TrEMBL record:
Annotated metabolic or biological route of this protein: Cofactor biosynthesis; thiamine diphosphate biosynthesis; 4-amino-2-methyl-5-diphosphomethylpyrimidine from 5-amino-1-(5-phospho-D-ribosyl)imidazole: step 3/3; Cofactor biosynthesis; thiamine diphosphate biosynthesis; 4-amino-2-methyl-5-diphosphomethylpyrimidine from 5-amino-1-(5-phospho-D-ribosyl)imidazole: step 2/3
Protein name: Hydroxymethylpyrimidine/phosphomethylpyrimidine kinase
The enzyme's E.C. designation: 2.7.1.49, 2.7.4.7
Superkingdom of the source species: Bacteria
Gene this chain is encoded by: thiD
Entry's Gene Ontology molecular function annotations: ATP binding; hydroxymethylpyrimidine kinase activity; phosphomethylpyrimidine kinase activity
SUPFAM superfamilies xrefs: Ribokinase-like
Catalytic activity, reaction form: 4-amino-5-hydroxymethyl-2-methylpyrimidine + ATP = 4-amino-2-methyl-5-(phosphooxymethyl)pyrimidine + ADP + H(+); 4-amino-2-methyl-5-(phosphooxymethyl)pyrimidine + ATP = 4-amino-2-methyl-5-(diphosphooxymethyl)pyrimidine + ADP
Pfam families (alphabetical): Phos_pyr_kin
Protein's GO biological process: thiamine biosynthetic process
Family: Belongs to the ThiD family.
Length: 264
């Protein structure tokens, strides 16, 4: 059995964060573990409150996992503060996991800030260079490159610029671009790009899509796939999970993790 670790925030509504990640790991047949950075009171309508976990406790969770159940791959999601980002960076420098997927979560779909503005620079300096792959959505990529991204050509340029910050590969998700196609751009270095294109599914059940996608990439990397294959299979998973979602709650509903056939 392969092991995967998520370092992220808790979503009480179960659609995003740690809960989405662990469901995704389970449905990929990978043993899931968690380091909780923050607890959010959240549902499909929005975020009611956020309570961060102390830096000492974040570090202790990392120590507990890494010294006994060393993960084959790690995913990082909501890190919330500069201080938590720094302690995660310290833990990663100490334990040196081989494969890190960084989902630079900044703001929830319901427009609640999940990463302090002051933490952005630290995330870029300390976590981006440690990542095998970083998976920003369009808005997150815009914050990182400090300019607007409006089409696929601009996504390509932004991905190349983000790679210069020290991560090895970059996936910019285009779920939020105008138009009826969801196009994601994967940059693998030099002039090597792969495009993942799907018709946009007309649904409100897209809460936790970014978390689920990055966790699926992490599970696939843990199983030994290379980045290109890990993203391709994860894209099949997230598309199917959105397509087969059932309406739950009164807002942005969760995706469906019972979409079978990917836990090989
Ligand atoms: N309505 C949709 N139909 C099909 N794919 C979607 C839809 N919304 C998002 N996706 C896909 O889900 C994945 C997660 O993207 P996105 O929702 O942009 O991330 P985030 O939750 O971080 O904002 C991407 O592969 C994106 O293309
Ligand atoms: C605890 C927590 N972590 C991350 C997110 C953001 O999740 P994401 O997959 O980007 O989905 P939406 O916020 O866009 O639904 C979150 N909401 N909560």
């Amino acid at each position: 059995m392969k092991l995967a670790l998520t370092i992220a925030g808790s979503d009480s509504g179960g659609g995003a964060g740690i809960q989405a990640d662990l469901k995704t790991f389970f449905s990929h047949g990978v043993y899931g573990m968690s380091v909780i950075t923050s607890v959010t009171a959240q549902n499909t309508l929005g975020v009611l409150g956020v309570q961060n976990i102390s830096e000492d406790m974040v570090y202790l969770q990392m120590k507990a996992v890494f010294e006994d159940l060393f993960p084959d791959a790690v995913k990082i999601g909501m890190v919330s503060t500069k201080e938590i980002t720094e302690v995660i960076s310290k833990g990663l420098e100490e334990y040196k996991p081989g494969k890190i997927v960084l989902d630079p979560v900044m703001v929830s779909k319901s427009a609640h800030r999940l990463l302090e503005k002051e933490a952005i620079k630290t995330l870029i300096e300390k976590l981006v260079p440690k990542a095998l792959i970083i998976t920003p959505n369009r808005e997150e990529a815009e914050v990182i490159v400090e300019r607007k991204i409006q089409n696929v050509e601009e996504m390509k340029k932004a991905a190349k610029d983000i790679a210069k910050l020290g991560c090895r590969t970059v996936l910019i998700k285009g779920g939020h671009l105008e138009g009826n196609k969801a196009v994601d751009v994967l940059y693998l270095g030099e002039d090597n790009y792969v495009f993942f294109e799907e018709e946009k599914i007309n649904t409100k059940n897209t809460h936790g899509t970014g978390c689920t996608f990055s966790a699926a990439i992490c599970a696939n990397l843990a199983k030994g796939m290379d980045v290109k294959k890990a993203v391709a299979y994860a894209k099949l998973y997230i598309t199917r999970a959105i397509e087969t979602s059932e309406d739950m709650g009164r807002g942005w509903g969760p995706v469906n993790h019972f979409c079978i056939g990917f836990n090989n």
